[in-house]
User: Fold these one by one.
Assistant:
Number 1:
Amino acid sequence: MALDRPVVMGILNLTPDSFSDGGDLPTLERALERAAAMVGEGAGILDVGGESTRPGAAFVAEADERARVLPFIEEAALRFDVPISVDTRSSRVAREALAAGASIVNDVSGLAHDAAMARVVAESGAGVVLMHMRGDPKTMQERAVYHDVAAEVEAELTEAAERALRAGVPAEAIVLDPGFGFAKLPAHSLELLRELGRLTRSGFPLLVGPSRKGFIGTVVNRPPKERVEGTIAVCVAAYLRGARIFRVHDVGPVSRALAVIHASETGAGFHAGTGAGTA
Ligand code: HH2
């Protein structure tokens, strides 16, 4: 996937227990309204999930996950002209989501959780986001031990990409993600952000998902919904270090921040005279 401009991926958590927005979208109608608002504010991808993967999150039965995401995907695929990504570790949920209209699988386990996932992705021709983590959401923080976090994340993401390629996923379908907050202490996420440029050496596009996360909270000392400025700061820094896809809740503010830094870096997307003022 060659990306010459930043793409914002809007988060739709259809879960009761996500760390920042659990229970915010209790009905299909509310979720579709939120999705429409996100597309209107510049989302280039909608990422829908039915399982919270925050540290310590409870296991979700596959039937519940399917019931949460499939009706939304069927309807959203008809209404919106942007790709839909399904945030799942389950190959069955992924297969059904792709049949319902999704075209990207966002697997926070990097194809390690479900042995059939790589094949489902390869056979469907879907895009795939391979995120770095260790273990599963219940135990991952115990495994947040690194000598050189960027080098270890790079090596483990390379293994995930090799798993995908061996299963027949084409290289152009693969996107890598350092997994901020997954099996990482706040200091690890901040160091990864500083060293993010090292992860572009693989040649795969880079996605980041810092939205409202705890490593931002430890710096600004604010609850999740008041971490938008911190999220923007991380996205802009990540953009400058080569990230091109940004998974966030606050689509409008992040899209506008990225439009400015992208215009400054490339001259693209500059509409002279359309600003509210000239000061
Ligand atoms: N973070 C979360 C979930 N999915 N996917 C990718 N690719 N990258 C991420 O950083 C990422 C992700 C966790 O955040 P959120 O969806 O807001 O919360 P929860 O897992 O509690 O639903």
Note: The CA atoms of residues 155 and 174 lie 16 Å apart.
Number 2:
Amino acid sequence: MGAEALARWQHPELGLLLPQQFIPLAEQTELIHPLTHWAIEEVARQVRAWNDIGAAVPVAVNVSTRSLQEPMLVDFIVEVMASWKMPPGQLKLEVTESALMVNPPRAIELLGHLRSLGVRIAIDDFGTGYSSLSYVKRLPVHEIKIDKSFVMNLATDKHDLAIVRSTIELGHNLGLEVVAEGVEDQETSDRLAELGCDSIQGYLVSRPLPAAALLEQFLGGAPATPGLVLAAARTAYRGD
Ligand code: MN
């Protein structure tokens, strides 16, 4: 039902770098802006290529704390969607609670604007930040993604189970879709289905893959498109 764009940096001397090895550094500098712009444009380009061969996959992009404060972000996204003829509903922006809490009125305005254009908004790593529930109620988001630290031991830890169950209920009562992150085994997936979770993401569905491999794995034999985007797939319990 969808994919999330994840960044990897194949460094000529240091080898493969993971986001936690370069995103914090980019965040401390202005470099986070070109990086975020590159990721959004790369997703739009990939979605266009997939749409052209009949594989309309929605793709999520992570937006960092600094990028959420960038005045030009909305204009940039509008421009990119137009130039790649990307349907706004195929773009999802993921923002963390802590990013939202830096300047909540600004986040509400920016995300509200994007939402009105048809872009989907998700709160990422939900449960790890310090967001107040009064803001969660007011944020113009479509879904919450329960952080993997609560999901991973769900089948054996009754406290994690209680947190996940309550979060699914909270999300649904607020009219939001609920995604569980970090699902690695069938038992956890089954428990989440029983709890009414809308969809899952994690190694059980797919490990991160290059875009071309993702298409091949999920659509079987469709022509590969060149791409730098790495994606983690999601799956739904309910098809409707
Ligand atoms: Mn994410």
Note: The radius of gyration is 17 Å.
